[in-house]
């Protein structure tokens, strides 16, 4: 099937197998490998992207479902060579260790901050419930999001 999708501001048109997951289209066809494949069941959140401005897990969406949509991946957050405040926050506040979950955490947090620019710690933790980190214990992830909230 032919799909047309705008990813990080660039239009793309490709023929894809109807069963191709969006995460695999992004990684394998477009070579945007910042979106990670973790669990394949939407439980870990490593594959979180924005689809038409809303955070979604790309491992449970078919690429054909994104036809005509606008997609933002972790690669699309930085502008003009400047890190997004969330990316900067994760660096400044040591919000990552191995980094595997980080793109999904950042994309989820970006959606949170878009709808709630000054979330409480409890609201941040609630927003991250669909994202799993096996390394950090979440404390510095929350601090990273608070950093970005203040900066934004």
Q: Main attributes?
A:
DNA polymerase, domain 1; 152 residues; alpha+beta; globular; Ubiquitin-like (UB roll)
Topology:
Layout lengths: L1 E6 L2 E6 L6 H8 L18 E4 L2 E4 L12 E3 L12 H8 L9 H14 L5 H7 L11 H13 L1
Short structural summary:
With 152 residues, this protein is α+β, with helices and mostly antiparallel strands.
Characterise this structure.
The chain is of the alpha+beta class. It folds into two domains: 75 residues, Roll (Ubiquitin-like (UB roll)); 67 residues, [2Fe-2S]-binding domain (DNA polymerase, domain 1), CATH 1.10.150. Helix content is 33%, strand content 15%. It has a five-stranded mixed β-sheet with strand order 2-1-5-3-4, with helices on one face. Strand 3 and strand 4 form a beta hairpin. The radius of gyration is 15 Å and the shape is globular. The N and C termini lie far apart (40 Å). The mean pLDDT is 96.
Q: Structural class of the secondary structure composition? A: alpha+beta
Radius of gyration: 15 Å
CATH superfamily grouping of the largest domain: Beta-grasp domain
The SSE string, one letter per element, is EEHEEEHHHH
Counting H and I runs of at least 4 residues, what is the number of helices?
Answer: 5
The CATH architecture designation of the largest domain is: Roll
Number of strands: 5
Averaged pLDDT, please? Answer: 96
The gross shape turns out to be: globular
Major sheet: order of its strands?
2-1-5-3-4
Relative strand content:
15-25%
Distance between the termini: 40 Å
The structural domain count equals 2
Any idea of the CATH class of the largest domain?
Answer: Alpha Beta
